[in-house]
Amino acid sequence: MQTGNQIVSTEAERYLLIYMIVVLIIIATLVILFFIIFQKRKNKILLDKLKQQQEFEEELAKTQQEIQEETLKHVGRELHDNVGQLLSFATMQMNAAAKVVSEDVKSKVGNASDALKESLAEVRALSKSLNSDVITNLGFEASVKNEIHRLNKSGLIEAQLTINGERINFENKKDEIILFRILQEFFSNTLKYAEAENLNVALDYHTDYLGIEVSDNGVGFDVENAQQGSGMTNMRKRSELIDAEFQLQSEHDKGTVLRMKYPYKII
């Protein structure tokens, strides 16, 4: 009888042990499942926050771009309408004065009149490059040509434009404006800081993208250690808005090169 009770007791303990093991496995499984679900929800929340932050930054960049374009458009119109009219009036007055002054000062008046005419032409060209409506009507390529012509006429630098391939129209006209503003920013930085004598711009039309390369022979700078000023930041941010690849390279005494790939869509 005692042996039988020991056997029953052993069987009961065995079943109890199995039961406890099963319970522990179930609890461990539930804990693991809970942890996995918790991590997935946590990761989803983090991804949602990251996505919202990216969308906010993109929207902010677009808003800043629109504000800048409106400001530049207003400045361009003011230059054309107000400053341009004043220069036109001054030119007419100088031409009238040239007819009545004595011969010994007529040449000086003529030189002043020519200077006013050149100033008027420069103001009108500048107003066109600032006004996004004009850029949209002309198109990206024509706007770049006008800007290169304006730079050469200023005498501050010798600029050259090379175009390869057959021109392809952009589906989004706003992209043309943004690309043009990036190039304008590079031109402006070159004139301000590079001490360059030459500026080269190359536009390469490919089947699915437009390749752009802009280079100068200026003093250059250390890109890695350079302070990220508003000019460089603006160029990068604008390129992100249109999904364009952006690469800026520079070395001391070796000039600066900007390379971009803009993936346009064919109309």
Q: What does the secondary structure layout of this molecule look like, with pairings?
A:
Elements: H1 2-100, H2 103-130, H3 132-138, H4 140-154, E1 158-164, H5 173-194, E2 198-205, E3 210-216, H6 230-241, E4 245-250, E5 256-262
Parallel strand pairs: 1-2
Antiparallel strand pairs: 2-3, 3-5, 4-5
Task: Summarize this entry quickly.
With 267 residues, the protein is an alpha+beta fold.
Architecture overview:
It is a single chain. By secondary structure, the protein is of the alpha+beta class. It has six helices and five strands; from the N terminus they run ααααβαββαββ. The protein has helices spanning 2-100, 103-130, 132-138, 140-154, 173-194, 230-241; strands spanning 158-164, 198-205, 210-216, 245-250, 256-262. Helix 5 packs antiparallel against helix 6 (230-241). The protein is elongated. The model has no long low-confidence stretch (mean pLDDT 80).
